[in-house]
Request: fold
Amino acid sequence: MPQVNKKELARAIAEKTGISAAKLEKALDMMVSEVEGALAAGDEVNIAGFLKLYADDMPPKSSVDPRTGRRMVIPVRRTVKAKMSKAFRERVVAANKVKGVGLVIAKEPEEKFAVELEKALAPSGVKCVVERDLKKAIRLLGGRAKSADFVVITPSVPETEYEQAIIEIKSRKATAFLPVLRSAFDVSRYEKPEGFKILPDHIFSSPLEVVRQVSGDLERWHEEKHYFKRQFKLRSSSKLDTVQALFRAFDTLAGRILSGADENYKLLSALHEAIENAAQHGNGGVADKYVTVEWIEDARTVMITVKDEGEGFNHEEALSAARLGSPDAVRQHMERGAGTGGLGIKLMLEVFDELEYFDGGRTMRATKKKT
Reply:
């Protein structure tokens, strides 16, 4: 059975209140000391709506030692007993019936979308916690992924607040793999964004679609939380300024992945090269052609996929030249029109453990093993 220790309690309360975790831990120590003193004195400790704690003397018992046949007397023993309040018992029973918890971020009071979603998911054992304040919603997650299994951001939440929410969720270590479901009536802003977007894991236009997705994938999400550490996806037009904005968001989300600063810098530099190759060489810098970047991370590896919408290139020849040639030779090879992005490919080969191309060179997948 999972356990929560004192430090974890203090950190969770600190996330929600802004009070120092060290001060909260000290307060918990003081409270425990007071409870111990009251129980030792024979007093009953009643925490309204939660537990009633009291000391109880177990009567003496006698038994026969099977080896010697002698009768033994077990003296009076004092134990501490706990009695749950009715309200707390009902919450425990209800929690045991809950198969999953979804945090629903909604802007408008009693928003129809959120109300319908809550009612539709309840029969399948999925509890929805609806929060209208973005900062409170993030605090509810408490930095601990087990407080929710997925997050739904409803249509009433403005795009600017959606962007704040998803970058908060995806950049936090404990919540980075939580699926984010965006309900929006206009999905084109994610498929073909004007600039760049941090994409939700799933996009829907109705509560029924969300219910179907949750019902089908909740069990898988439960399992994946134990294996994966982080997943996010970004999409950008190929204009230089939007690609630069994508770089900044990407670096924020990726954070410090590897143990060494130099190694981390090289990895991010290589990925910048891959993204710039896709935008400038693959898509030719055209505004209505897009680059999609996906990051999936588990305890052992980081896997990044970069896709463009260009015509592709002879990636086998470019890989061969990058593996065998010096930087000058690669540059000359590329200048002869034999391919695109050769120096970037050479850098990626030096940084990543595996580098693969698919779809005629339009999709690159790079894998890095963690040390």
